[in-house]
Amino acid sequence: MRIISLNVNGVKAAAERGLFDWLRTQDADVICLQDIRVTAPELEQDPYWLDGYWQYCFEAETPSQGGVAIYTRTAPKAIIMGLGFETADRYGRFMQADFDKVSIASLLLPSGRDGDADLNQKFKFMDDFAGYLNKQRRKRREFIYCGSLYVAHLKLDVKNWRDCQNEPGFMAPERAWMDEIFGTMGYVDATREVTRESELYSWWPNSEQAENLNLGLRFDYQFLTPGLRRFVKQAKIPRNVRFSQHAPVIIDYDWTLSI
């Protein structure tokens, strides 16, 4: 099973840059998109339609401000939209597809980079979502969460970590939150399960210097319940594949979806 996750920063612009032509060549079983910025009816039209996939969208109340989507070759048993708290549901930040033994979610956190209000909203979301994850790990099924957390966990995940310690995305409280998820709760960072490669980033500031010097951070993840750890085969974040400020996270699993 191949899962591709990508924050598109607006699916219209990403499509114009060739996103869907590229996706058609990738043989993905599941595609999770974040920050789509369109309505569900819009996503069902060309050029966003992918033949051979079931397609689902959870749009934000104001479609230009978020939204997530899931494309899957296998029809899910159920689709869950939202988490039940405002910081998630108002902006279309979470959607989950349930299959036989595994659930796959598309997830979008606030970036926290657009002023104090956005950062406060991010911390509120993180608190609420941590409570949700703590409950989910007790369920008798596996989970894969795909998306933009807008937090780089380790120094390894940041080009200039010393300069970023007081910036949203690498602040101590954010990293402590990641420690809780990947430590106390036991969730697994799929990428780091199979590679310790340095300079493996998924987001870059919008500047020519950042691009040229690879001044990136790893903000985008697929993370999973520990029962799936041994099924992670390969992880890639191809820097040269860019349809937004983010690069896609591509994970191959030794797993076959069923309903």
What would you say this structure looks like, in words?
The structure is a single chain. This protein is an alpha+beta fold. It has a single domain, classed as Endonuclease/exonuclease/phosphatase (Deoxyribonuclease I, Chain A, 4-Layer Sandwich), CATH 3.60.10.10. Helix content is 26%, strand content 24%. It contains 9 helices and 12 strands. The chain has helices at residues 11-16, 19-23, 40-43, 86-89, 116-136, 161-164, 172-184, 190-194, 208-213, and strands at residues 2-7, 30-34, 54-58, 68-72, 78-81, 94-98, 102-108, 142-148, 188-189, 220-224, 232-236, 249-253. Strand 6 (94-98) and strand 7 form a beta hairpin. Helix 5 (116-136) packs parallel to helix 7. The mean pLDDT is 95.
Entry summary:
It is built from nine helices and twelve strands.
Give short descriptive properties of this protein.
single chain, 259 residues, alpha+beta, Deoxyribonuclease I, Chain A, 6-stranded mixed sheet, 9 helices, 12 strands, 24% strand, globular, Exodeoxyribonuclease III
| Poorly predicted ranges | none
Helix content: 25-40%
Average residue-wise pLDDT:
95
| Beta strand count | 12
CATH class: Alpha Beta
User: How many helices?
Assistant: 9
Query: Which fold name is given in CATH as the topology?
Result: Deoxyribonuclease I, Chain A
* C-alpha geometry: globular
Radius of gyration: 17 Å
Order of helices and strands: EHHEHEEEHEEHEHHEHHEEE
Q: How many separate domains?
A: 1
Beta content comes to: 15-25%
In quaternary terms, these chains amount to: single chain
Say which CATH homologous superfamily is assigned.
Endonuclease/exonuclease/phosphatase
Structural category is alpha+beta
Strand order of the largest sheet: 3-4-2-1-12-11
Largest sheet: 6 strands, mixed
Please tell me the CATH architecture by its name: 4-Layer Sandwich
* C-alpha termini separation: 14 Å
GO biological process, one term: DNA repair
Keywords: Hydrolase, Magnesium, Manganese, Metal-binding
Domain Endonuclease/exonuclease/phosphatase: 4-239
Binding site for Mg(2+): 7, 246
